[in-house]
Structure formats: C-alpha cells, structure tokens
Fold this sequence. Notes:
By secondary structure, the protein is mainly alpha-helical.
Amino acid sequence: xxxxxxxxxxxxxxxxxxxxxxxxxxxxxxxxxxxxxxxxxxxxxxxxxxxxxxxxxxxxxxxxxxxxxxxxxxxxxxxxxxxxxxxxxxxxxxxxxxxxxxxxxxxxxxxxxxxxxxxxxxxxxxxxxxxxxxxxxxxxxxxxxxxxxxxxxxxxxxxxxxxxxxxxxxxxxxxxxxxxxxxxxxxxxxxxxxxxxxxxxxxxxxxxxxxxxxxxxxxxxxxxxxxxxxxxxxxxxxxxxxxxxxxxxxxxxxxxxxxxxxxxxxxxxxxxxxxxxxxxxxxxxxxxxxxxxxxxxxxxxxxxxxxxxxxxxxxxxxxxxxxxxxxxxxxxxxxxxxxxxxxxxxxxxxxxxxxxxxxxxxxxxxxxxxxxxxxxxxxxxxxxxxxxxxxxxxxxxxxxxxxxxxxxxxxxxxxxxxxxxxxxxxxxxxxxxxxxxxxxxx
Length: 442
C-alpha cells in the first residue's frame, strides 16, 4: 500500500508541474501583451524549466520574446529544439535562418531558408530572406533569381522589386536599379528604403535634385531610418553642385554623435530596448565602433540578457583588444552566468593593461572565491584595498570573504569600515545595510 501511495503522489506531482508550466506561459503572454518584457522573459524561462521541451512555450519565447531583446542566439537554440520536435514546419527553418542572418551567419541562414523552401516552395518570405543573404555574401545573381521567384509568385510584392534594385546597384547597374525602385514605389508609395536607395542611385547618376527629393520623402515617412542614411545625402543637400563624398565625412560624424546622444539618453532613462535600436542605427553607419558594441552590451546587461551582452562585449574587444572597461563589464556578465574561470581571465586582461586597477583585483578576488581559491581571493582583495583604501564596496566584499574563511572578527572590522565610508559618502542605504550585518555578527 505504501508503494502504491508513493506512485500516486508522483503522478499527481507530474500533473501539477504540467499545470504550473501552462500557468507560467499564460502569465508570460499577459506580461508580453502589457509591455512587461523582462517579466515575460522570466516567466517563460520558468515555464521551460518546469516542463522540458515545452513546445508552445518555446514557440512564444523564440517568436515573440527573444526578438524583443534581440537575443538571436537564444532564438536559434529554441528553434533547434522546436525543429527536433516538429521537423516539417517550414516557418521554424525560416525563423531560425533569419536569426542566423542577424548574427551575420549568412551561409547558415541560406541552409535554413533552403530547407524551408523544400517544405513550402511558394514561401515568399523565405525567398526574400534567402535573396537578402545571398546579397550579403556577394552572390548577386542568386539573389536576383530569388527575387524573381517572389515576383513570379506575388507580382505586387514591392520588397522584391526594392531588393532586386539594391542588387543591381551593387552590380553598378544604376539605371536598372532605379527602374526597380520605381516599380517598388509604384506598388508601395511609402516604401522608405526604396526612396533612400533610389536616392543613392540618383546621386551616382548625377541626379542631385531627384536624390534630395527622395531623401526628403523618406524623412517624412520614417525619420529614424532616413537619419541612418543621411551621410549619403548631406553633401548634396548642403551643395547641390557637389558630390564629393570625402567632404561629407565630418558631417557623418556629427550625425552619428546625435544618434549616440539619443541612445545614451534613452539608456540613462531606463529605456534600454529603445536605446538598443538607436545603437543599431549607429552600427549600420559605423560597424567598427567598439564603444557602441560595448554600450549596446551594457543595455542587454541591464535587461539581464547576459548572453547577448557577452556577444556585444566580444565584438567590442575584437575591434579594440585594449578596451579595459569592456573587460570589466564582460567580467560581470561572465560572473552572473557563473562562468568564473572566464571572469578571472577578464580580470587578468585588465591587470595586464592596467597593473594598478583596483577593480581588476577586487573582481578577480570575487571570482576566485567562487572557485574556492580563498587564499588567492583574499590576496587580490587586499591588493585592491591597498590601491583604493576609500572604496566602501571593497571592505564590504572582503568582509564576506573573511566570513567564508571563518575570520568573524576580521569580517566585523571590515563591515564597520564599510559603514563608516558609506556614511561619509552620504550612502544611507549602504550604511544601514552594514549596520544590519554588524548586528548579526556582533
């Protein structure tokens, strides 16, 4: 009878987990609909953890939530699981392909779009996406073939004509490009990219006034997108008789600065998702700007999307391997992901570049403590305090390490010193927190 009861209890628990996962999914969708993206992500993560390979939850996370955070690696991983469960859904391949393309992995994207088209050979979106990936790889005639396929399926598709025009422009066939942009705009008079790209082609054929008109039309429809293209047109606007692109370069820097200012202001105000959109625009203009990748990484970090933060920090450090503050911020992402060995390596890089960087020593000490290398951790924290003896956070951190080392008197002294420094810095929350720790130990 006891064994029967245990089996019944286990069965009941399984049902409860299933119901819990469904409830978490419902709550996540509600948060998503009301704009609570961070909460939606937390809830959907819990749903997937509660019920392994939860197909519906994976679909929602991959198609609705991760795109908000631009977590393309997460999208890829989820759709890989989804495809394993249901390998005959062309949309899953298409969507995973799109995520690969967003990461610049165009060859992998093309493989997925091709699989999608094997399952659904009239998928307009898959042809469009594959054509764009071929374009990025410089396989222009394959791209044209895909856009031709779209037009044969859907003759009124403005995107197909606009994209085909872009390919002809890349082939320096500007008049054919303009003809395609004309067709796109005839089908969709509000197609911003068609105006902008036609304007660029008009500049190259010396039609300055036509180019300016195209830019002004695009600006009325979508000011943000037009801003990203502004450097192509500003010399023509300031001097219609001149097309010297080199002379326009200083103005390009100014337009980038304005976008950066807007992004920074949004981020400082807590709107990290919108800030990321502006940083995206900057990177379209200046794709080798390490600071922008770093700042975009910080936005993802504040959104608690540490994996995406790492992707951006890695790109920044690939461009500038001496970016000290980026190593420190990458440390934080590695630390919260419990990748402590990687976190230590980040601090090593900081200290190689700046041997007296107190944060490098303190942070390395924190990571070493998690790796149970307590003596080395204490040595690093002591060095940090020697360099910067007025940082209350350092004494606070060393106090917790001393507790792990069972040196309670030493911990008490450090909490007291931290409390004193917090008070001197008018940090009352920090001061009160230290008082609470002192009471607990004392």
